[in-house]
Design goal:
Helices cover 24% and strands 20% of the residues. With 111 residues, the chain is of the alpha/beta class.
C-alpha cells in the first residue's frame, strides 16, 4: 500500500486529513480521487456517489486501465468503518494501486 503526504493540484472535496510523520509526495494526473467526509458520504471527483455506483465506475475504469492509481481521502473525523467500506469497494473492483491521502504534521486542538 502506498501513502502520500500531500497531493497538490488535485480537485477534491475539502476534508481535515489526519497527519503522518513521513511520506513522499506522489501525484499522477490520471488517477481516481475518492473522498469520505466526516458524515460518511462518499465523493468521487467532487460528486457524491453511492457505494454500488462507485463499484460500477471503478470496475469500468479498471477494465480500461489496470494500472490506474486510486487515492482515498478521509476527514480526520471520518469513522474507520466508512473508510474500510470504501477501501473494500476499491479492492473488489480489482484496483491494486491504492493510497490514503494524509495531511502534514499540523497539531489539532480540541475546542
Amino acid at each position: 500500500m502506498m501513502i502520500s503526504l500531500q497531493m497538490s493540484r488535485t480537485a477534491n472535496i475539502k476534508v481535515n486529513l489526519p497527519s503522518a510523520t513521513q511520506a513522499a509526495q506522489d501525484y499522477k494526473p490520471d488517477m481516481v480521487n475518492i473522498t469520505v467526509d466526516k458524515s460518511g458520504a462518499v465523493w468521487l471527483e467532487q460528486k457524491t456517489i453511492s457505494l454500488p455506483d462507485l463499484s460500477l465506475v471503478l470496475s469500468n475504469r479498471f477494465r480500461a486501465d489496470t494500472n490506474l492509481p486510486v487515492y482515498i481521502s478521509g476527514d480526520r473525523d471520518t469513522l474507520h468503518g466508512a473508510m474500510v467500506t470504501v477501501y473494500e469497494a476499491v479492492r473488489s473492483a480489482g484496483m491494486q494501486k491504492v493510497a490514503f491521502a494524509i495531511g502534514g504534521n499540523e497539531v489539532q486542538t480540541n475546542k
